[in-house]
Amino acid sequence: MAIKITDDCINCGACEPECPNNAIYEGAMEWHWKDKTNLSGNVIFPDGTQKNAEDVNEAYSDEVYYIVPGKCTECKGFHDEPQCKEVCPVDCCVDDPEHRETDETLFDRQKFLHH
Ligand code: SF4
Ligand code: SF4
Predict the structure, then answer these.
(1) Measuring from each residue's beta carbon to the nearest atom of ligand 1, which residues come in under 6 Å?
(2) What separation in Å is there between the alpha carbon of 25 and the centre of ligand 2?
(3) Domain total for the chain?
(4) How far is Cα 50 from Cα 59, in angstroms, rounded to an integer?
(5) 3 state SS of 45
(6) Cβ(113)–Cβ(39) below 8 Å
(7) Which of 1, 36, 43, 108 has its CA 20 to 30 A from that of 77?
């Protein structure tokens, strides 16, 4: 499953640079598919939808750092363990029960983001 950040986040910023997919953003900052991926221009996503990698997307949280589930691969394809979990000083990067995904899905996502 993807990882999520809880309200216990102290906004230290340690996790953001560790994410190989740039799935982590500071609270209130807008996010983009293109950030730290190979996606550019109009892209057909695995679910058949078309999006533009440069599109500006609204923050999922205004208060604390947040993770974009569609960019999180649990670090699969890069590291053995989720790097945000490893570095977070207050252990607020936790499994997200609303985004349970198989290893195959996560590896496919990693390939899609970095093809
Ligand atoms: Fe990024 Fe890995 Fe954390 Fe997912 S688990 S948000 S890919 S650092
Ligand atoms: Fe928040 Fe933990 Fe990331 Fe620091 S490392 S910004 S406390 S989620």
Answers:
(1) 3, 18-21, 23-24, 67, 72-75, 82-84
(2) 10
(3) 1
(4) 20
(5) coil
(6) yes
(7) 43
Question: Which residue(s) pair with 93 in the sheet?
Answer: 5
| Interval 39-89: pLDDT, tens | 999 999 999 999 999 999 999 999 999 999 999 999 999 999 999 999 999
Are 31 and 25 contacting, i.e. CB atoms less than 8 angstroms apart? yes
- Global pTM reads 0.96
> DSSP code of 112?
H
Closest CA to 72 of 3, 7, 14: 3
Contact 79, 20 (CB under 8 A): yes
Q: Which among 44, 41, 24 has a CA at the least distance from the CA of 112?
A: 44
Domain harbouring 85, CATH code: 3.30.70.20
